[in-house]
Write a structure and sequence with these properties.
2 helices; 8% helix; Metal Binding Protein, Guanine Nucleotide Exchange Factor, Chain A; globular; 36% strand; 5-stranded mixed sheet; mainly beta; 11 strands
Amino acid sequence: MKHTGGCLCGEIAFEIDGNFESFYLCHCERCRKDTGSAFAANLFSSSASLRWLKGENKVKTYQLKSTRHIKSFCTNCGSALPNIQMDGKLLVVPAGCLNSEVSIAPQGHIYFASKANWDKDLEKVLRFDQLPSASTDF
């Protein structure tokens, strides 16, 4: 299966050839800081290949000292991007950077004991199809 993706500003584009074996939502403090959200949504593959179509020179990879925590991102817009970990054995792809449909559903929440204190009953929060109007909802 082929997947395409890129960053928010459009400077970086990539292609992934192969399948994802797993999909997890990570609630650890590091992933929450990486994303600025309740969790990171990452796809994992030990067999798929990553090919940069444009902008590879704008990809920055950061590894938190003394950990295995790695994040790749666009140096222009900051969008999360794929990276290769574990000495080239594992491709990690932030699900939100893909343009193509993801064929598997998340298999679980990981590091759930570390979730943010405000991350509860989110399915009960009001839903809007677009930004709510400032005069009535903020």
